[in-house]
Amino acid sequence: MKWKKFRIKTITDAEDIIISTLYDIGLEGAQIEDKVPLTAAEKEQMFVDILPDGPEDDGIAWLSFFVEETEDGHLLVDGEETDEESVMENVRSKLEELRVFCDIGEGSISVDETEDIDWINNWKQYFHQFYIDDLLVIPSWEEVEETDKDKLVLHIDPGTAFGTGMHETTQLCIRQLKKFVTPETVLLDVGTGSGILGILALMFGARSVVGTDLDPCAVEAVRENLESNHIDPEKFEMLIGNIITEKEVQDRVGYGCYDIVAANILADVLVNLTPVICSQLKPGGIYITSGIIDDKETTVVDAVKAAGLELLEVNYQGEWVGVTARKPV
Description:
By secondary structure, this protein is of the alpha/beta class. The chain contains nine helices and 16 strands. It has helices spanning 15-23, 40-44, 84-101, 168-180, 196-203, 217-228, 247-253, 267-277, 297-306; strands at 2-11, 31-34, 60-69, 75-77, 80-82, 108-113, 130-132, 135-138, 152-155, 186-190, 208-213, 236-240, 258-264, 281-293, 310-317, 320-326.
């Protein structure tokens, strides 16, 4: 499958209105390139604690729209055949209409033909099976070798939105779960993503898991990964929302009912999360955290102690830190 790429040079303030306007003529799924710094909310959903310095925001944005090209050279927009000239004419017309009442910057358009790429599945070439100690993590499109069939195997398909377990912070959490999970464990996984921590807790013998995440895509990701590992979905309940700020989410999660709370998220988020999850933990419950870059270790340790938790362990992998604590009995 080949695609025509229509690339528009504009300004960041006009991104949303141009995307919305061109959506009306059948151009969907814009790729945005700009130098706008990430917001605090965007950083919360990433594994990166300290971002490298980027170029200064110059207000310029590039919007790219991809249109499918048929074998005979026609373009498909909204399921209808058209051609490059017609698409260009429609885009120019819409941009000129916008220019009458708002600044869209240069508003120039260029066209390129892209490679024949399966945009949804191309990322899979970068994810292959690997070990975390004696645990084999493997995607669905690879086979378990005969020599590995007696190992503990986690089948995980992260999709395009969530992690795979390759990150050091996830591995720090996994090792602590393996140490503390018992057959009676009820786990709360905050920021569950692909469900890897909750699913492994169940594989280690936990009784049940509740996961929370900000991204609704986590529901389907967890469902698929439970199915891949032949785990009863009744054992893993997913809730979407912010447990730090939303009382409704806190109430649905429940109070004083978790043997372990796991949170593999950013250090600054852990500072705000820690006093909240104290209410969710049982007396004697274990709090397992990571997502902490090394120079934020003291920040998280201080937050744990300030919340009245007993510091049990601080573990390291590369430049990342895991902090484990216990709620007093």
